[in-house]
Design a protein that fits this description.
Strand content: 15-25%
Mean pLDDT: 83
CATH topology of the largest domain: Rossmann fold
CATH class of the largest domain: Alpha Beta
Helix content: 25-40%
Low-confidence stretches: 45-52, 124-133, 268-272
Oligomer: single chain
Number of helices: 9
Structural class: alpha/beta
CATH architecture of the largest domain: 3-Layer(aba) Sandwich
Distance between the termini: 10 Å
């Protein structure tokens, strides 16, 4: 059984991600597994300097169980509301344990063979003690699995166009082949996007583009792949323009050391981009070559 893992802190942002995951689960015939990592205050380095409430792991775990039961009931109602005759009904399970969020999620992915992780781009709601702030950036840095980040207040809509932002690395061709498995059930277009510095297009750059697209044509069997270059003053400005004007439903990227995406994460504009992006962000780890889901 395919599995979609959904980390939650029981915040509205996390709930939005879980609702999005329902639509994916129904499309891919996948189960949904919810999880949360419980950070016990007494185990924190700063615990001795802060007047923490006298809560132990057992009481925190019990509170989480109560929240999970309520969340599963709400998600089940959501699933029934969007149900069509003969459609797949995903199952909902949940797990919680003590530890850091990123490490806990990575262990669950390995243990339960999860195909993809879907989580909110921001969090830290009333149960922030379970999920201390937004962990999306750390998850991107460490993940060895596809990670779909859902912005707050984004509702699912049929996926018709997926933009894949590339720096024309040959390794990206394998990622595009994997992305096809995500796009095919929706019959979605894959728009290969390359941001070019303004006035920086030359014959060498054009040859690099042509060679990359030729390799994609030869190695990736999917007819709905297109290409578009964007001239911009910078990568993040170009991607911002794309999310605002490109009519895309998901933006996909590869995270590798010293890639343009890594530089984007480290740049001073990262937080501005995270706040402005209004489409889900699908992040692949370097050298990923498996079926997405």
């Amino acid at each position: 059984m395919k599995t979609i893992l959904v980390p939650t802190d029981f915040s509205p942002a996390a709930y939005t991600a879980a609702r999005y995951a329902i639509h994916l689960a129904k499309k891919f015939n996948a189960a949904i597994e919810l999880c949360t990592a419980i950070k016990v205050p007494a185990e924190s380095v700063m615990a001795a300097q802060v007047a923490w409430p006298l809560e132990d792991y057992d009481s925190l775990k019990k509170d989480a169980e109560t929240e999970f039961e309520y969340l599963v009931e709400k998600l089940s109602q959501e699933e029934q509301a969007i149900d069509n005759p003969g459609s797949f009904h995903p199952t909902f399970t949940y797990n919680n344990d003590r530890g850091e969020v990123t490490d806990y999620v990575m262990n669950l992915v390995d243990e339960h063979k999860a195909n993809i992780v879907v989580m909110g781009m921001s969090g830290a709601g009333s149960f922030s003690r379970f999920y201390l702030g937004s962990n999306s950036k750390e998850m991107i840095e460490k993940a060895n699995f596809p990670l779909l980040l859902i912005p707050a207040n984004v509702s699912f809509k049929e996926i018709k166009k997926i933009s894949f932002a590339t720096d024309l690395s040959s390794q990206d061709i394998e990622i595009i082949a994997s992305l096809v498995y995500f796009a095919r059930p929706f019959n979605a277009e894959i728009l290969i996007t390359h941001v070019i510095q303004e006035n920086d297009i030359n014959s060498d750059e054009q040859k690099k583009i042509d060679d990359f697209l030729s390799s994609v044509t030869c190695k990736v069997n999917y007819p709905r792949i297109y290409y578009r270059s964007i001239q911009s003053s910078g990568i993040n400005e170009g991607l911002n323009w794309l999310t605002e004007n490109g009519r895309i439903d998901i933006m996909a990227m590869v995270h590798r050391q010293e890639s343009f995406f890594t530089r984007l994460l480290k740049s001073s504009h990262t937080q501005q981009l995270a706040k402005s992006i209004h489409v889900p962000l699908l992040v692949f780890p370097e050298n990923f070559n498996r079926v997405v889901i």
